[in-house]
Amino acid sequence: xxxxxxxxxxxxxxxGAAPEGIWAAPGRVNLIGEYTDFNDGFVMPLxxxxxxxxxxxxxxxxxxxxxxxxxxxxxxxxxxxxLAPHSGHGWAAYPAGxxxxxxxxxxxxxxxxxxxxxxxxxxxxLSSSAALEVVTALALNDLFALGLSAPELxxxxxxxxxxxVGVPCGVMDQMASACCTEGHALYLDTRDLTQRQVPxxxxxxxxxxLVVDTRVKHSLGDGAYAERRAGCEAxxxxxxxxxxxxLPYEGLDAALDTLAAAGEDESVVRYVRHVVSDNHRVEQVIxxxxxxxxxxxxxxxxxxxVSLRDDLRVSCPELDLVVAxxxxxxxxxxxxxxxxxxxxxxxxxEEEAADxxxxxxxxxxxxxxxxxxxxxxAVPSAGARRxxxxx
Length: 391
Prior knowledge:
Elements: H1 3-15, E1 21-32, E2 42-58, E3 63-68, E4 76-79, H2 93-104, E5 112-118, H3 128-143, H4 150-165, H5 172-179, E6 184-189, E7 195-199, E8 207-213, H6 224-239, H7 252-261, H8 266-290, H9 297-312, H10 317-328, E9 333-337, E10 344-350, H11 354-368, E11 374-377, E12 385-388
Parallel strand pairs: 3-5
Antiparallel strand pairs: 1-2, 1-12, 2-5, 2-6, 3-4, 6-7, 8-10, 8-11, 9-10
C-alpha cells in the first residue's frame, strides 16, 4: 500500500468517508540569511524532501476536525466561528490558525475534516510548523476554490503563526514551503516577496549539503526569538530607518558607531551587525551560485555561523560542535540554520567526503557525551503541491 493509500485509509476509518484529496508541503533548510526575514531582508532557503501531508474533505456545518497520525490523542474538534488567537490546542493551533486567517481575510471556509502526517523532524529547525500551515492552506484553497497564489497562502500561514499561535516569525519558512522548486534554492526578498529560483544542482558539482539534526529541541515561543526581533526593531528606530534592510552594508560601521554613541544596549548593536552582514552574505552567495562557484560559498557559511554565535547568540554547544568537527574533517563550510538554540546545522562537503565528515561529526558528539545526531543530505525539492485524488 502506498503512503497516500495508507493516509486515505486512515482518514476514511477516522471520519467515515474518503477524503477529497491529498496535499503535501515540505519543510525547509535555509542556506543563508538568518533572522533577516522580519527585517525586510534577503533569505535563501530550499525545500527538503520531508513533507507534511494532509488528507482533507470539506464540511459545510462550521465544524473543523483535526487529527495527526504523529501525535498521541484523538480528533480535535473546533467550531470555525469560535476560533480565537492564543487559545491553545497544541499542534492543532497551526492548521486551526490557517482556517482562522482565511476566514479573517474574508474567504468562505465552512469547515473541514483534516488528517495530517509529517516526516519533517519536529524541533529540528526545519520548519515543521510552516509545513503544517502551508499544506492546510493549499488544500483549503483548492477545495473551496479561493484562487489564492502560493505567496498569498504563505502570508496567510505566517499570519496564523504570528497572530493565532503567537510566534513572531518572518515569512521565509512559509514562502519556502509554498514556493520552492526542485533543484533550486529560493532567493527571496522578504520586503516585496519578489523571488528568483536559483539553480542549486549540488550533484552536478560533485557536492552535497548535509543537514545535521543535533536532536536538541528548541521552542521559539519562549521569548528569545521575540527579544531579538524587538532588539532589531529598536536598532532601526535608533538609526531613523524603517527596518534594518534600509541600512546598506557599506554604512554598517558608521551605524554601529552611531548606536554606541547613543548609548544603545550592547545587544542591539550586535543584532544590527548580524542582520546587515547576513543580508550581505546572501548577496555574496547568490553571486557565487550565479557564477557556478558553489564551493566558494563554504567560507561564507562559516562567517554566517560566527555571526549567529557571537553577535546574535542563538547557537549552542552542539551546533558549534557540528561546525567545528565538520570543518576539521574537511568540509567546505558549515553553519547553524534556522532559529537556533538547538535544531540543525548545514555542512557543505565534497560528495566523496560526505560519509567521512558525517562520521567525524557523530564521533565528536559521542566524545562530548551528546546524543547521536541525525545526518542526511538536503536535496533541493519541490514546494507545496496536490498529490492527486485520495485513492
